[in-house]
């Protein structure tokens, strides 16, 4: 046997891991499935506040199992691992993520699959507990009130000062976002933060020359 053959054999053996038995593989998939169902349940709780996508939730559980299978296969052979690296490098995901929190659950599922695939179940358990506690605690923290959008249409073009005076009585923060002036009417859009939105709308509606008032609440970014 030449030195080249000895070196090649030792190189391959250095990356190879002892073959897992069927019982060990079944145990890995069983425990990974438990973690996947746990992630499925936690995501279902948090997604109730927004748009719940069942397909994405099912995909999270499947991602954990598939990742565990990939890690098991990588451990079995260096050739398989190199082949998977080449195959996965050409995959492109173009699906837009609607909620940034979805990325957290996606990486959580991937991490659980990787960790369980190498048999470190205790780390996967600690990770799941810490991530769950962090999400619950941060979700309960109070945040600033999101601004509202006030849309007003008037019959005269010189009523912005009067409208701003009325708005300033109900809120300390308001900002004119747009003005559309025409010979027939004037449209003003304001961003403001107010608690007595109904009273403000009623007072503006009673002003002579105001033809339309609308207050819109939205779930956009919060202005601090």
Descriptive account of the structure:
This protein has 224 residues and is α+β, with helices and mostly antiparallel strands. The protein folds into 2 domains: 3-140, no CATH class; 148-217, Alpha-Beta Plaits (2-Layer Sandwich), CATH 3.30.70. 58% of the residues lie in helices and 13% in strands. It has 8 helices and 4 strands; from the N terminus they run ααααααβαββαβ. It has a 4-stranded antiparallel beta sheet with strand order 2-3-1-4, with helices on one face. Strand 2 and strand 3 (186-192) form a beta hairpin. Helix 5 runs antiparallel to helix 6. The chain is rod-shaped and about 95 Å long. It starts with a helix and ends in a 7-residue tail after the last strand. The mean pLDDT is 77.
Q: List SSEs in N-to-C order.
A: HHHHHHEHEEHE
For the secondary structure, the number of strands is 4
Secondary structure tally, helices = 8
Judged by helices, strands and strand pairing, the structural class is alpha+beta
Q: Biggest sheet, strands in spatial order? A: 2-3-1-4
> Taking Cα atoms only, what radius of gyration do you get, to the nearest Å?
29 Å
The biggest beta sheet, please? 4 strands, antiparallel
Ranges where pLDDT stays below 50 over 5 or more residues in a row are none
Q: Distance between the terminal alpha carbons, to the nearest Å?
A: 73 Å
Which band does the percent of strand residues land in?
Answer: 5-15%
Question: Average pLDDT, to the nearest integer?
Answer: 77
Number of domains: 2
